[in-house]
Specification:
Number of strands: 8
Strand content: 5-15%
Radius of gyration: 27 Å
Helix content: 40-55%
Number of domains: 3
Order of helices and strands: HHHHHHHHHEHHEEHEHEEHHHHEHEHHH
Structural class: alpha+beta
Oligomer: single chain
Number of helices: 21
Length: 470
């Protein structure tokens, strides 16, 4: 695969060099922002393939040398000068309504597609263009919050990426200690859930017989993982990240693993945000692990809750929020006793009760504008057909987790018998598949209101370890 990609890149580079010799010298004048706009217009003007490849390569080279201000001007140029012609769209729509034929529909579809789409297609012909266009979208995403006019540019790129990064083009590779160092360095850098603290830490996650790591690659992004997942093979469902990341046993386990735990999924390319790979990755890895280790019966995650802390703060400061009083009482108690590191632990049982009750509300009742759960990780796994199996109190006491999730982590359970039904219920009705243990936590809500006045003296019992499928 690498040899074929290398040959193709060399061939395209040769075409680009030959095409460059055929172009007017005026196209390659002074290096400034105006020239890149002229080159972009020239690329779209319908020149021959060789000259088009040469111009595309020059556009990407010029773009790489632009500063932030010049790049923003270029993005605005794409947004305004390469948009659809409103009159052409209107005429095509009117013609199709008057005489709805295949030909009139084709003309309407052509009018609706912005010239930007064809520009990016031709830009993609340049040798080595794929990672550079992905990086260009990364730059667009960074300015998008302050530049609403660039939304159509981002939407065009996103639609193209859905095609260019189609599942059929992705290659699954296992990452282990024998993987080239250039890729291992990127695994360390791209890990987004649980920081990898150097090479020794990475080896503990890759080398033991009960650890796995898999990544998706694309032929046009050589040695650049798109997304990777870290897996621990265990005997039971873990309720704390320490059970997964602690120093592995030297000896081989006495009994074969029965549970595959997906404890970290990291997207690697910022420019591919919104292009879903994780669901395909999980499904293929489950198939791979099941073939490799037939004793595996349970497939679960140990997942972060990255927005619970922000949601709790918002709830506490919004008077009409359904759990405003409970959220404020919990946050006040946390600050008052310096939870979870303070010496006065008398309020800790009450804090645990309130935390678990509010977490249950967060997952089961709190909805976004689209009627789906507000938590992005929950939307991902529930959309894949998983079940919210267990909410784990103080499962991760790292600074990052305490700040973002007050130490909570959750287990999502992938039951092959329920996946399709759960997916359909979530997609069609927004139904959250959850275990009885999680739903029972909602009944703690009345106790939460008494947090500040009469904190309960009993801590919650440890989470019941339900058998898979119950």
């Amino acid at each position: 695969m690498a040899l074929n990609v290398s040959f193709l890149q060399e061939l395209l580079s040769s075409v680009a060099e030959q095409g460059r010799a055929l172009l007017p010298k005026s196209l390659f004048g002074a290096d400034n922002g105006d020239d890149i706009e002229e080159l972009a217009a020239a690329l779209l003007s319908g020149r021959g393939e060789a000259s088009g490849v040469a111009i595309a390569r020059e556009v990407l080279d010029r773009y790489a040398r632009l500063d932030d201000a010049a790049r923003l001007r270029f993005f605005r140029f794409l947004a305004t000068d390469m948009r659809q012609d409103p009159e052409a769209v209107s005429n095509a729509a009117r013609a199709h309504l008057e005489e709805p034929t295949d030909a009139s529909l084709a003309k309407l579809q052509k009018a609706l597609e912005s010239p930007r789409v064809e520009f990016f297609r031709r830009l993609h012909l340049a040798p080595g263009a794929t990672p550079e266009i992905v990086a260009m979208r990364r730059d667009i995403l960074r300015v998008l919050p302050d530049e609403a006019s660039l939304v159509p540019v981002d939407q065009d790129l996103r639609r193209l990426f859905y095609v260019w990064f189609n599942r059929g083009f992705l290659v699954l590779r296992r990452i282990d200690w024998n993987t080239p160092a250039s890729i291992l360095e990127k695994i360390i850098r791209y890990e987004a859930v649980h920081e990898i603290r150097g090479w020794d830490d990475l080896r503990r996650r890759l080398d033991p017989t009960d650890r796995r790591c898999f990544a998706f690659f694309h032929p046009s992004l050589v040695d650049e993982p798109l997304v990777f997942v870290e897996v621990a093979l265990m005997r039971e469902i873990p309720d704390a990240i320490g059970q997964v990341l602690e120093e592995p046993h030297v000896q081989a386990p006495a009994k074969p693993a029965t549970t595959a735990v997906f404890y970290s999924i990291s997207n690697c390319q910022e420019g591919l945000k919104g292009i879903t790979f994780g669901n395909f990755l999980l499904k293929q890895v489950v198939e791979e692990l099941a073939r490799e280790t037939p004793t595996l019966r349970t497939f679960v995650t140990l997942s972060p809750v990255p927005q619970f802390g922000a949601w709790l703060e918002k709830a506490a400061h919004k008077d009409n929020h359904p759990v405003a009083g409970e959220a404020k009482a919990l946050l006040d108690a946390i600050q008052r006793v310096d939870w979870p590191h303070g010496e006065d632990e008398t309020e800790y049982p009450a804090i645990e009760t309130a935390m678990m009750a509010l977490a249950a509300h967060y997952f089961l009742a709190a909805k976004g504008f689209d009627g789906r759960p507000v938590d992005p990780v929950a939307r991902f796994h529930l959309g894949n057909g998983a079940r919210l199996e267990r909410i784990n109190y103080l499962a991760d006491i790292s600074d990052k987790s305490l700040r973002e999730a007050h130490g909570l982590m959750v287990n999502y359970y992938y039951d092959p018998k329920e996946i399709e039904r759960n997916h359909e219920d979530f997609a069609n009705e927004g139904t959250v598949a959850a275990s009885r243990a999680v739903r029972a936590l909602l009944k703690l809500n009345p106790k939460v209101r008494a947090l500040a006045a009469e904190p309960p003296q009993q801590a919650l019992p440890p989470p019941a370890r339900e058998k898979a499928g119950t």
